[in-house]
Amino acid sequence: MVDAYKLYRNEFIHFAFTHYGCDSENAKDIFQDVIIAFYDNIKSGQLTEITGEVKTYLFAIGKFKVINFQKKESRKVTFDVSTLINSQNQIENTMADKEEQEFIKATISRFLDEQCEDCKKVLEMYYFEELDMKTIAERMGYKNANVAKKKKYECFKKLAEMVKKNLKMLVF
User: Fold this and answer.
1) Is the distance from CB of 152 to CB of 126 less than 8 angstroms?
2) Who has the most CB within 10 Å: 38, 62, 119, 137?
3) Per-residue pLDDT of the chain (172 residues; tens, 9 = 90+)
4) CATH code at 81-170
């Protein structure tokens, strides 16, 4: 299993990027899911014999996982951290009064504090500590990285909506 992971990982990342435009980080996560699915299929007895090459089997699983990932991504809210930071930077550049800038930072901080404790922890670990989803899942006691990703997405969506609504009120 480890050999297959090491042998095909970089090639899969290249494949996912070349054929589907998948970025490196997501391709790594997807390939990890592919290896887990491969292992689960063997362990459950679904896969007892491979008539072709292991690589072909792994890439076929990977292809569908990339497509499913991209479908999910296309349904996500397009408001991300860079938008939040850019919005804040634009406001800071147009405001002459330092007091107003501090108010904006405090507002974002307040909205983060208004999140449930789990949301606050997940967002801080991801955006401030820059931890990967697997580590966050382990620290939070979640089943796996996918659960952590979903939690981060839901929490960020709430935070982004709150901040966005407040920023609109601040910009005249």
Assistant:
1) yes
2) 62
3) 568 888 889 999 999 998 888 899 999 999 999 999 888 888 888 877 777 788 888 888 899 899 888 888 776 554 555 555 555 555 555 544 555 556 656 666 777 778 889 988 988 888 778 889 999 999 999 999 999 999 988 888 888 787 777 655 544 3
4) 1.10.10.10
